[in-house]
Design a protein that fits this description.
Elements: H1 9-25, E1 35-40, E2 43-49, E3 65-68, E4 73-75, H2 83-95, E5 101-105, H3 108-114, E6 134-137, H4 148-156, E7 161-164, E8 168-173, H5 176-198, H6 208-220, H7 225-238
Parallel strand pairs: 6-7
Antiparallel strand pairs: 1-2, 1-5, 2-3, 3-4, 5-8, 7-8
Helix pairs in contact: 1-7, 2-4, 3-5
């Protein structure tokens, strides 16, 4: 994947719009709610985010809005912006210079898992992508208050994945593709865990040694899977629904 610093604003707009369409295609959207943001590579204090009111399948590169880290729309025709989107996304982009993209969802599987006391378990190789790298943030009500930003950022820490208790999922990426890839796999891990737990059978969890080995294998990425995955997803996003 091309580094964020070398990308043009138009390229980031195209990648971000593709994420919105992919979220809709995979059934991970929530009508007009939830949000995905991306930092502008040449203006790191500016973000792209969706207009509040658009379905995710309707988002295009040109429909994305530019806001600053205070949540003010700074270019183009003024349009509604989800307040919770401003609170959550500006907090993370401001605190994490490495956060090129932030994805937030309210899927059935993600919200259901966020309500489980044990959180995400290291049950399988998909879940182990996140082993030891998942943060948790307690539910404080709808994220409309700026004072929650301090706790949100503190709970996320240096991790790129966070489960918002009683709320949903959040991922952070150094690129737009990385953030979406993490979210897709996190969603799959949630579905897998819920399916296994619903069986009522006793769960088999890999040993700590195998868990650590699997994490190392993911980090090595010998086949360049992340880049190949995003190229394939961009092709999928271009196809009609």
């Amino acid at each position: 994947m091309k580094s964020a610093e070398r990308m043009s604003e138009q390229a980031v707009r195209e990648d971000l719009a593709a994420v919105y369409r992919l979220i809709a295609r995979f059934g991970m959207d929530d009508l007009i709610h939830t949000h995905v943001s991306a930092r502008l590579p040449q203006e790191p204090d500016k973000l792209l985010i969706n207009r509040y009111g658009d379905l995710f399948r309707e988002v295009t590169p040109d429909s994305l809005l530019v806001i600053d880290h205070d949540g003010n729309q700074v270019r183009g025709t003024q349009a509604p912006i989800n307040t919770a989107g401003i609170v959550i996304h500006t907090a993370i982009h401001t605190a994490r210079p490495d956060a090129m993209c932030v994805v937030h969802t309210h899927t059935v599987a993600g919200v259901a898992l966020s309500c489980l006391e044990e959180g995400l378990l290291p049950l399988n190789q998909t879940a182990l992508l996140f082993h030891g790298r998942v943060s948790y943030h307690a539910f404080e009500g709808i994220a409309l208050d700026r004072d929650e930003q301090v706790r949100l950022v503190a709970d996320l820490g240096a991790n790129n994945t966070m489960i918002l208790r009683n709320h949903g999922l959040l991922t952070v990426g150094r690129t737009v593709g990385e953030a979406f890839g993490l979210m897709y796999n996190l969603e799959q891990a949630c579905k897998m865990q819920l399916a296994a737990m619903a069986s009522g059978a006793r769960l088999v969890i890999p040993s700590p040694d195998v868990q650590a080995r699997t994490v190392g294998q993911y980090d090595a990425d010998p086949d360049g899977a992340a880049g190949l995955e995003w190229q394939a997803l961009r092709r999928l996003a271009a196809l009609p629904f």
